[in-house]
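so my prof wants the structure for this chain in the tokens format not the other one, which i didnt know existed until like an hour ago. anyway here's the sequence
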Amino acid sequence: MTDTNYRNQGLSRFLIERVLEDWQGNCDAMYLFANDSVKNFYPKFGFVSAQEYQWNRKVATNNLDIKVEKLNMEEQSDLKLLKNKSAGLNPYSLFAAESIEWLVLFYAISFFKDKFWYIPQYDTIVVADFEGDTMNCYDIYGPGEIPMDIILSAVTKQETKKVVFGFTPREQEGCNISLLKQEDRTLFYK
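here's what i got, hopefully its the right format
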């Protein structure tokens, strides 16, 4: 994403080398997504492409009377609640990134601003949207003491039959996994 006036000067290489130097020994792994125009760039730095998979499962019927509030990302109190909750890891994810509240807040004020649902009874935020009979669950932030099925069923709509995860669920019983193919997007890890 280098401005055309500054290309071919080694700036991207400098930035990648600096990031790798700064994080050497300070993290377990690094990952990124690249479009097809740059997918030959990252292997030069030791990144390897990987196939991406997606988990899904049928949703239990929601017959519980649990209050769910849609958060308004234009309200400071809702943003503060999200910041506090997202400072912890997703307790329902097998692999969760640490210290990402800044990234969550970026998505909250842009691409995902209408996808945050709060369950006060469980002090849990679910990041999700709906397409027909499918709920796309991108993340869950909270104490993790309540079974994931209950959290998911609290947020689902009447017509929801399936949930597709944006993370690898810790509880995998009843889940299906499939290869995720997205055009012009490659997952790399180091």
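also thought this was worth mentioning. The beta strands are 31-34, 48-50, 52-58, 69-70, 116-119, 124-131, 134-141, 162-165, 175-180, 186-189.
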